[in-house]
Target: CTLH domain-containing protein
Amino acid sequence: MSSLSRELVFLILQFLDEEKFKESVHRLEKESGFFFNTKYFDEKVLAGEWDEVEKYLSGFTKLDDNRYSMKIFFEIRKQKYLEALDKQDKAKAVEILVQDLRVFSTFNEELYKEITQLLTLHNFRENEQLSKYGDTKTARTIMLGELKKLIEANPLFRDKLTFPTLRSSRLRTLINQSLNWQHQLCKNPRPNPDIKTLFTDHTCAVPNGPLAPPQVNQPITTLTKPTAFPSLGAHAPFPPGAAVAAAANAGALASWMAAAASGASTVQAAAVTPASIPMPQNQVSFLKRPPATPGVVDYQNPEHELMKRLRPAPSVEEVTYPAPRQHAPPVSLEDLPLKAALALHQGSTVTSMEFHPMQDTLLLVGSATGEITLWELAAREKLVSRPFKIWDMANCSPPLQALIAKETPMSVIRVAWSPDGNFIGVAYAKHLIHLYAFSGPNELRQHAEVDAHVGAVNDLAFANPNRQLCVVTCGDDQLIKVWDVSGRKHFTFEGHEAPVYSICPHHKENIQFIFSTAIDGKIKAWLYDNMGSRVDYDAPGKWCTTMLYSADGTRLFSCGTSKDGDVFLVEWNESEGSIKRTYLGFQKKLAGMVQFDTSKNHFLAVGEDAQIKFWDMDNINVLTSTDAEGGLPALPRLRFNREGNLLAVTTADNGFKILANQAGFRSLRAMETSAFERMRTPADSSLTKAPVPGAPVASVSCKVELGSPVRPSPMLNGVDPPKPRVDDLADNPRPWQLAEILDPAQCRQATLPDTGSSTKVVRLLYTNSGAGILALGFNGIQRLWKWVRNEQNPSGKATAAAVPQHWQPNSGLLMTNDVSGVNLEEANPCIALSKNDSYVMSAAGGKVSLFNMMTFKVMTTFMPPPPPSSFLAFHPQDNNIIAVGMEDSTIHIYNVRVDEVKSKLKGHLKRITGLAFSTTLSILVSSAADALICFWSIDTWEKRKSVVIPMPAGKVAVGDTRVQFHVDQIRILAVHETQLAILDASKMECIRQWIPQDSLSSHITSAVYACNSQLIYTTFRDGNIGVFDADTLGLRCRISPSAYLPQVNQGLSPLVVAAHPQEPNQFAVGLNDGSVKVIEPTEAEGKWGMVPPSEAINTSPSTTSNQTP
Model:
């Protein structure tokens, strides 16, 4: 059924409800399956009308649809059974047991037996688990609460729990409008017509004569006839000159035109290129003036006439109708996503974000480096990443080619999804837009590259004029352009006198139009024709403004900033083209432009003053605000997902956070395994899948408790529920087992090409682009491998499925550190890479050298020994500032530009072995060979605190300690040969430890967070590799040496491990023979084991007090 036919059903439901046809309302709700009336459902449940409850549910789901549906039906039938027992009606109870509950015995026979045994008890409360069962009314209320949670979590009820917001008696209004137009088109209109039927078109009787013959009924051209409901019909086929009548539903835009027509604005011409988009006749004739009709006022201005005609005319049969029912829940702070659910690191400044229109945890991110990334938030992983590159230089204009030759940065300005989620649009800071075809989580294919504008492309959006998918863009060249998805231009709209800042395509019924704003504060509106702009208004603030509609398309908002820094968030009255309300609560004089978004039909959100502020759409005062637990920039960017339960906000450390409400947290947990079918239990699967003949059948032993055939529960009713939460239903039902990789076939791996160097690898890095690996050898020589983009590896990123090339410049240079006079056995080589992969600095006991990554030439050297350098780290906000750890236990803060040590930090007792910055907390964390962790302010370089990592019994604090920040910039991973430790940097204390044990009892050689900080990869001296859950330090997977080392390994072991910057399940290890291996899980598994249950975790929670000042 088409979307308009679906809307027609809602109009009929509203009409039936207003006319008090209650039974018909609920029957249509059930038969259409479009709206689940929770109020009606609640009434029937509390009344115990179980047959009607199940009959109503059957219109939306069946028992075997999924685990949520099965749980819903089980809870209802179980309650029905208990009530029969409570009334001592054993015959009825047996009937329910046999007819209603037996179906669940297929999935859980033990549970069915226990339920049957209740028949033998005089009072079923004698059962321990039912001892708290109260009276029937209380039990029904508690069960109803459980059912509501299950219904909300059930994907089959998505978008069916809220009735759309409609004006009172909307169907009557549409019919009255139709009758008014019919009356205006009468050849002999009478001042007081007598409307007696809707079955034929209205026509006034000829004076002193018979009625004119009725006209033939014609179907509405814009409303597809549904299979179950007949069309209302738009009676009387109008002659071509009267085609303007079909535009009667474009009231919003038209009303703006009316107000604009009263001013002195001129109508600008639009340059239109040959197009393949056939425009509807009503749009072509939009401004044609129909002939004057007796009895109708003849307005002098054509557009003013149009506006008056488009407003609903008073009915010739004026009736007052009751107000519509209100199904939308009251505004509550619990509906807002206020709590931080996760923080992810993009690697460069995030400039634009957009959620997938249907997959609520799929987020598209654009960054200042030109890279776009697709994130699966539930899995905390990057699915696809595409760096900026020109696809076809030959099609680029000379100005663009000149910019590319100068290596001008190409920041992403805007990313957008098409309404169906099949295309991605990317607008760049210079000239270009890219269109990608999206066909799956890892399928992002280049589709079209367009040299769209001269200068920046300031905005991009998708639209569907005449049901053809198009892309609308605007730019610094003062133009708005419309393209099809193959990159062919259809329209160019001219008229703005300043760079166009933003666009807002929209539609009212069958009228498609575009709002645009320019940096001179002008708002214009355009139809897809050659007749220029229809609106010319000044935006509040008269500078940069963006416009957005509410989710249901009925309310229009704009948010902008004046040149003086004042913020204006307003709602527009579309019927008058005036400001309806102005929202309050902004800080004065902002240096920059704010971003806003709308959530469902309730809330507005604006990023300002390093926080997110929220408004109820109907209240001008701030509802609430949040700083998202800190780390936001002054003007954070933000974007809601479709459901409004997740909110993405940018952070100051080149990443973003996801805020969530309770439903959002459930969504993240429920979608963690991505596809819904992967969440099904074996019982669910048996409903649709037959067993494979000859396939082995796993024997699963589990304790069954009274509750549900889907998931055991300790109670038969909902009283005092120690029941599993609804979101736990998505947990994998298989018992946890440690994943062990013992054979090379159990994982994917690639050995990097041998470069002839047999020196051991002491430091290992991925390039930030994810396309290369850099290894520093014991001898001070650095080697670089790069993956190439080809059919085998279309992404060009590091992968175990393709072997990279050992890369060197044509000059044949090696990146060799100065080791003259250095005893390599005593040296501590160190390395750090700039964020843009342009430079690498390293040392191996001698001077620190800064290398150009393209030419391998030494750009400069600094910090000659003594003392030698032992660790290096770039300042995250200034590549010219370098923290240099020294062998003499000091830390030098060195400015490369002026060749000067700005500060010297003292606090350790032995050589520095680790450095890490947190911009969120404004601290530098250092570690040393004395097992001491120091916290330094990066504003004053003063020491705040020191923490000693507790040593296991019998161990002494010797050996290197490394530190690395979690992506949340709060938690720290500290790695020592005796342990893994997690510290809370905000509290400056150790909170959890893991000590080598069991199969992983050897000394730790290296450990690192995965790029999403959900895993920790750890290498051991005996060759084992452990994959740990980062939050609990529980072991998820053990990779045996036999899986990646040769059978005769001659003492081979991994010395260092590195994690891929975008692929959370890929890592690389550097061995003591100089070789490097990239390791990934098999495609079938896709990840390293499962999160272990709490009982399988053997760690030491710690809140250490052994701190030093």
